[in-house]
């Protein structure tokens, strides 16, 4: 049998030729297709040429300047400090430009509100090395379970600040705000929940009462106070100033504000009324569209260092939820029962809880009337223009 | 790819399949591209249409705003806030368009509102500021407290004539129409249209939980502007085809641009492509089958002669040497077949020669193997038949071999001792030992010690308590190979139980003999002492008769004192004899033999002729040995008795000494039974008559004696020799006629062990002043004289006495006088009910009644407790001195620590 001859030369020429032609073709197709698929370029925080900075939205003078300076020195990140004076303003400006602000400080009820408005950004806890410094007692609270959005900054109470030289040894009760002998010398915080907390407690009701009757009584008492006692309303800075210059002798006041004002006028003192008082936590949160996220995280982490946390508490006379900061706290701060409130007194205090629409309606309406009285509009006329109750059903 | 056939097959398949593959892949690429393009075009069409409609909705919102603006009731400057509120409420009520409408003054304070749910009491937003400047604006969609969905807020400036100021009307319009539009768009089964604001937040999505969440932070607003179509891979890795449609500020009317994303999972697009692909694959498969069949046929044709040759070669390789390849076919194949066939012939020849060589070698090997096996079996049988238990352990603890006696001796359950680790073995057997702790002197301790001391060789004796009480002679030594390296340790155990029992009875007999022999001397001494006692008492009796007032030496008090002194010496003598003759349990322990020397000396001083001088010369730093001190004591005693017999009538010197000595290799070889190493040597030397060499050569033989009939059994030295051998030691003797004899007892030093603390009785406390009392004591003794003496003594000290002559009577008295008896003084050896039984019954019925045991025998308190269950409150040894009796009784009453006499 003769072997079948194979012609290797022809075979070797044909195959590569075919391959070459088709591979060219394939390459052309591939290139076309590649051009269609967008490259998955990732966008990180814009590495701007301008020096790094963050925008901090916070109450006026509500963080120790030396802590901010130290932060800028240590990290090279500048702070753009923007102040707001009350919740409505905070909500307004944040709603308008959520991409203009990075870090915001807000109290517990406002954190809850901002979450409802979807204006906050979830926190990536992995980026916060100092999270462990915080006291678990101040974490995972009702307004933000698991601290998805917020980190506690300072805590305090809302009570009564007064001029000890004008009102010596007052009875430690909310009734002081309705004392007729102090007419024209009484001041209230314009934060609606604080004002209502004071009046509800003075009536002997719960801080977060939902009972329409109790709330109507509270509105009435506030309106009467505005009309009969020449009460002034203002934000926390207004209250401090009024106590310092004597425009007001007694005032609904944040605990730390009273001690802070006492630096300027030693006659200013503070008490937590025996009926109990609002307890609150101010927290750091991030704006939903924060433009300088990387720097904002560094700022949050820095603020949770024991030194920074203690620096702020010492400066502002508030309790610090930072456990690691305790060794650095000033002794007069730690030993002051009005700041580090003893457990039995604390048991009478409560946080502002999530609010129902029905309650909001009564409070907003009531306060609107109070403000009208203060602006000098006729109370009766106001009452006549109150909309029908069926309105808030929608 | 090594067979010709496979190569041919591969070549054919390559030629057939390559073009097919190329065509297949190119078609596939072109088709899928076309499909992707058309899907994108579809997406793009949908996206732009939706974009147009969103812009339309926003335009309508602007028109709604215009409608407010043109509402005369609202914009009329002369309208009062109340009129405006009325109109606002009408608008909210009539049209479904507005959620709520609010009116603010120029400072941003709320004037009126159709709602009170978060109307913002104070307005400070940018849109409000713009309205104050006279501009109309719409806010970005935002959430409201307690309201579902998003809302647009429109801000409209109006003039208030009353205050001549600008007011602002704020109306909120639901964003729901945009949501409804986008949610109604259907793209495939997994596609969607998503609306994003310029910060990448989701404004509209089917999943409402995602509203105002970031869509995907990896991609900015700018990215979607620049890449308006393509493939997007979400964070979970799922790819989508997408088209991005930009909506500019003019379309959105909220002052910032939006982006509309129309997207569809890439898998849905690919599904269509894949269907086309499967048709093409089917075609390819058909071609492949055809090409394979062709290749199979051709290759077979080509390769068949080669395969025939290779099969033949394979069969040759398998041993079929008669195979030949037919020399046919092509020339090359014929030549190859011829060479192959020649080669097969040669291989056949070689193979036959090789096989016969291997056969003869194999036979030889088998024979020698058989011999070796037989020899091993014999050795094994011998080894298994020995009386000794044998264990060989490697240094790493592996048991190399063990014969069956090991299992028998140590009651090992496991069939294969040699499979065990040495530590496991020890763990299993250590509880069998009498002394089962792991102290250095216990078997476990010794075992561990020798295992870690390679060169140590030992002959010891260990005691087993299970499977039966046994004595084992233990021998251990390192096992060395031809080059002298130690590769294992040998342990041999021989059962000495019977030997030891025989020895024990022999020893006892011998001990009695020694006592007997001593008794001769003692009888002499005792008679002397009795003469003193009786004589003195007789004189005292005579002289104490009335009218006989003797003084001086004949004063009765003095005479009685002499009698008492003689009596005390007799008591001392009896006590020592009792101590020597008592039967003791064999107990090998680490000990210092100087104690033996002093005890033997004390005994001899009292029993030998006072003309014989006893010298004791103990070495203060004597090494420790493993020995039974009682046995060694007997050995030394035997040697001393022999020495006494060799001394002349008029006395001489016996010297007992101890010293440490190192036995050299040469010394060890010279002396029978000696081993080299450190030893303790006890020597007994006399300056008596000495022995001739002939006698010396026989002295250790049993029943050899030089003494006259009745004076010796001839067992003393033989027993001594046995005892010392049993301790691993030996005895030598040097003697010269007329000069004297020296016996040396050698015992090897104990490795690594210090002697137990001497537990000898505490020194007698200083005797307290004798005190009596008025308590009632029951005397129990069968001997009236003893009873009378005790009664006399105790009455003397003021006690009330009751008497009983045996145990039964004692118990009866106790029961008849409940609560009256304060103490019982109890003899041990009595008729009817023995002292021990009486004691036990008293403890059962009168647990609190103190009992003092008074006996002429030596009582071991531990043994007594073992037999009766508890200890008495005190012991008094008879004969006693009245002070001892009185103080012991008193101390029991006073609850002082019981003095054990």
Number of strands of chain A: 9
Structural class of chain B: alpha+beta
Shape label of chain A = globular
Low-confidence stretches of chain B: 757-767, 896-901
Q: Mean pLDDT of chain B, nearest integer?
A: 81
Query: Which stretches of chain A of 5+ consecutive residues score pLDDT under 50?
Result: 1-48, 379-394
Q: Let me know the largest β-sheet of chain B.
A: 6 strands, antiparallel
Listing every helix as H and every strand as E from the N terminus to the C terminus, the arrangement of chain A reads HEHEHEHEEHHEHEHEEHHHHHH
Q: Using the CA coordinates, give the radius of gyration of chain B.
A: 61 Å
Task: Give the structural class of chain A.
Answer: alpha/beta
Largest pleated sheet of chain A: 9 strands, mixed
Oligomer: heterodimer
Largest interface: pair, residues per side: A-B, 56 and 68 residues
- Give the total of beta strands of chain B: 28
Shape of chain B: elongated
Tell me roughly what share of residues is in helical segments of chain A. 40-55%
Q: What does this 3D model show about the protein?
A:
- The complex is a heterodimer of chains A (394) and B (901).
- In chain A, α7 packs parallel to α8.
- With 394 residues, chain A is of the alpha/beta class.
- Chain A is built from 14 helices and 9 strands.
- Chain B contains 24 helices and 28 strands.
- In chain B, strands 1, 2, 3, 4, 5 and 6 form a 6-stranded antiparallel sheet that branches. In chain B, strands 8-7-11-10-9 form a 5-stranded antiparallel sheet.
- The longest helix of chain B has 66 residues, at 4-69.
- Chain B has 901 residues and is α+β, with helices and mostly antiparallel strands.
- Residues 757-767 and 896-901 of chain B have low confidence and may be disordered.
- At the A-B interface, α1, α3 and α13 of A face α1, α3, β2, α4 and β4 of B.
